[in-house]
Design goal:
Number of strands: 12
Radius of gyration: 31 Å
Distance between the termini: 33 Å
Low-confidence stretches: 452-458
Largest sheet: 5 strands, parallel
Shape: flat
Mean pLDDT: 85
Strand order of the largest sheet: 2-1-3-4-5
Helix content: 40-55%
């Protein structure tokens, strides 16, 4: 395994001479040791999944090593605990092993024996922590992939950035055209962060009346203005402990940008009508369909706010630039619509898929979802899609035909679970012809076979 983390030793012994000698032996062997004279003192730093192993004497002033073993086993069943005794009690050793002790050492023991047992425990702990870390990463990645569907290089990069940034508290700016899924990415960042238990508070800055924007963001006190009959908590304060999503931030009035900048810098706000600062701790995710740097250079957006928000960026590609994601997205939306409308999911024919692949998608993924709804309801206007597809100049005709052919082949391979011979029969073409097309169109047959490109619901 890679990315090994250092694992140390917690050593508990109330005999000064024995403790000093054992610590020296372990440190001479290149191991990191933290010594304690009692279980009570050591317990203060012990937690689940900590990068340590425990070596403890059995007979101690205060709690004994065997009593501590039961507590440690409840806290973390995989934590290696080595017990040491000078009394040669075989029955105690057997019972300790039954209770979950990793090993049992009888005093006096040689430095070589102590180091050998501890090294084995360290190796076991390191492996356990790596497995836990890997499983956690896989679980997070599966969750992100479930929210951000697609197999294009562009969406894979978006997933990588989300996975990286979610684990931090850094503020993020998301760029993308209308309908590309900026809110989905922001929710994904929140869901996979340490703030997931807090509120996710979306604010459409473009939909806020300029006269009410400060009250909406910062809240107000009763009597602050006409109609303010009671205190109101603003969006920023409501996002305390969670995530504040500022959509269409480029449309926020400049006067509100000044107060927002101060709130982000001080991490506190003042409600309208109050002089009392209120501390807030929220992560800010901003989204814009315009380049904020260019807007700031043209004095249409505050430069200081741009640089305050501009720490990490995620750029969402328009759907027309990741057309290979259309089949999997459309089928996912079709199945979702069928569940919502309590209807059977209709079969997506080749003609419909061809139109989807060549359509311009000015509304991006949001428009694709709406088309899937109409498709399930049986009210899809294929002629409108066909007119737009005919008029689009986004791709040359050969490129459009390649996209269509690739999608048809990939869909057929999914239906036949990657079996090329069965797929050739389904498409009514010779197997060698299909192999040639797979090579020319760079179709990833192995990915389809192992399930990473199997369509949702199949």
């Amino acid at each position: 395994m890679t990315n090994e983390q250092p694992v140390g030793v917690i050593y508990v012994e109330d005999d000064d001479d024995v403790r000093i000698g054992a610590v020296q032996a372990l440190e001479l062997a290149g191991l990191s040791v933290t010594p304690f004279v009692s279980v009570e003192a050591a317990s203060a730093i012990v937690r689940a999944d900590m990068p340590f192993v425990i070596v403890s004497d059995v007979r101690l002033r205060g709690r004994s090593g065997t009593e501590w073993l039961s507590e440690l086993h409840r806290l973390d069943p995989d934590l290696p605990v080595i017990l040491v005794t000078g009394h040669g009690d075989i029955s105690m050793a057997v019972q300790a092993m039954r209770n979950g002790a990793y090993d049992f050492i009888e005093k006096p023991c040689s430095s070589e024996q102590l180091v050998s047992v501890v090294r084995r425990a360290l190796d076991k702990r390191r492996l356990t922590l790596e497995v836990h870390s890997l499983r956690s990463a896989l679980a997070d990645r599966q969750g992100i992939e479930a929210s951000l569907l697609g197999r294009s290089p562009q969406i894979q990069e978006v997933r990588r950035l989300v996975a990286t940034l979610a684990a931090t508290n850094v503020d993020v700016t998301i760029y993308g055209e209308t309908g590309t899924g900026k809110d989905v990415v922001a929710r994904c960042l929140h869901k996979h962060s340490a703030r997931r238990a807090g509120n996710y508070v979306p604010v459409n800055c473009g939909g806020l009346p300029e006269s009410l924007v400060e009250s909406e963001l910062f809240g107000h006190e009763a009597g602050a203005f006409t109609g303010a009959t009671k205190q109101r908590i603003g969006k920023i304060e409501y996002a305390h402990g969670g995530t504040l999503f500022l959509d269409e931030i480029e449309s926020m009035p400049l006067s509100a940008q000044v107060k927002l900048l101060r709130a982000l810098q001080d991490r506190s706000i003042e409600r309208v009508g109050s002089n009392k600062p209120v501390a807030v701790d929220c992560r800010v995710v901003a989204a814009s369909k315009a380049n904020l740097l260019e807007l700031s250079e043209n004095k249409l957006f505050r430069a200081d706010l741009y640089y305050r928000l501009g720490v990490a960026f995620i750029e969402l590609p328009p759907l027309r630039e990741r057309r290979e994601d259309i089949p999997i997205l459309f089928e996912h939306f079709t199945l979702d619509a069928a569940r919502r409308f309590e209807r059977d999911a209709p079969i997506i024919g080749d003609e419909t898929m061809s139109l989807l692949l060549t359509y311009a998608w000015p509304g991006n993924v949001r428009e694709l979802r709406n088309v899937a709804d109409r498709f399930v309801l049986g009210v899809l206007d294929s002629k409108a899609l066909n007119r737009s597809a005919s008029g689009t100049s986004e791709l040359s005709l050969p490129r459009q035909l390649e996209n269509i052919e690739r999608s048809i082949i990939e869909d057929a391979l999914r239906r036949k679970l990657g079996d090329v011979q069965a797929t050739a029969a389904l498409l009514s073409i010779p197997k060698q012809t299909l192999y040639d097309k797979i090579k020319r169109l760079a179709v990833k047959v192995d990915s389809i076979r192992d399930g990473s490109l199997v369509r949702p619901g199949s």
